[in-house]
Automatic annotation (TrEMBL):
This protein's name: Beta-lactamase family protein
InterPro entries: Beta-lactam-related (IPR001466), Beta-lactam/transpept-like (IPR012338), Beta-lactamase/esterase (IPR052907)
Beta-lactamase-related domain mapped to chain residues: 22-372
Amino acid sequence: MLVESDYLPLADQFFSMYREPGQGGAALAVYQDGEPVVDIWAGWADRDKRWNRNSVAMAFSTGKGVASTVLHRIAERGLIDYDLPVATYWPEFAQAGKADITVRDVLTHRAGLHRAKGLVPGSAGILDYDRVIAALEACPADPRRLRTSGYHAITFGWLVAEIVHRVTGTPFIDVLRTEIADVLGEDEFWYVVPEGRRDRIAKIFPHINPPGIKWGIASSVISLVRPVRGLAEAGMPEGFDKLVRDPRVHESVMPGWNGVFSARALAKMYGALANNGEVDGRTLLKPETIEQIGTRQVAGHYDYVLGYPVSFTLGYHRPVLMAKSQPHKAFGHYGMGGSGAYADPETGMSLAFVTNRLGGSLTALGDLRLARLGATARAITTRQDQ
């Protein structure tokens, strides 16, 4: 474990969260100015197994930020123009009136393809990457995309992955390995988890469906309530509550939600983005690229899926901290259940938190653990700069 002395209050806060098996386990990592300053873990990876240095967790939408970073590596070399239509690289995407949707639209959740529910038949249908891609090609876009964003809770990852695949001619997970894992010297960036590493994945709990209510019923009811209808369409496909625990998830490319990471790997990636693209003598992206991808693209309008305003950048969002002052240039991605990671170029800090305990006592969808840890870390970093 690693804890630089200034970050002892952050470590104390983290360890206090994981004293009982029912609290599950987690890992927390922080980089400052391109150097690791925190790398700690605590709690339980399963009922009879402690979390250890090698434990990893499925971090849900946290993976959207990793997938976006892959695309930006390709774009930086001039192979992708954010403002060209997706169909420039993926001709079949132009079907059903989608010829004018740009790469920027995809990265800012304005492609109008948020619907995962009913996209392909059967609860296991979304495990078939090629089938999903064909379905997205045939789908018309939601016209609300012309007014505001509609969070692509599950479909985002497939859209980004297929753009990368079409541009490079290489399967997305292979590009991920060469563009992120190999560059950073960190192996734990997985959508398809190597078979020999799957025993390292912490078991997630509790069930994500509302207590006492079956998933299908909950999804159907929410689909009928106009203000939250988009949540059911975007994030509640058939059988998803059971699918998140299905081992087949770790054999499928679904970068919108099935990424498995260590906090250490995520913090290093975002550590580079917080430090002008450099970490451990390695270059991930150029400073001008980081400035571009961290600039707010969508803000002030209610997202038609989430029902509240979201500040999207190019493939990321602004982190939210339990503090009066929010970071104005930070960007990253949080995931369902509480995991997340981000870079804060203003302070040179990155933070990553992965956990197998989904949410808190009220809901499994999320809680305030990361927001509180982030506030403490920012306070420490801000004091250092004074």
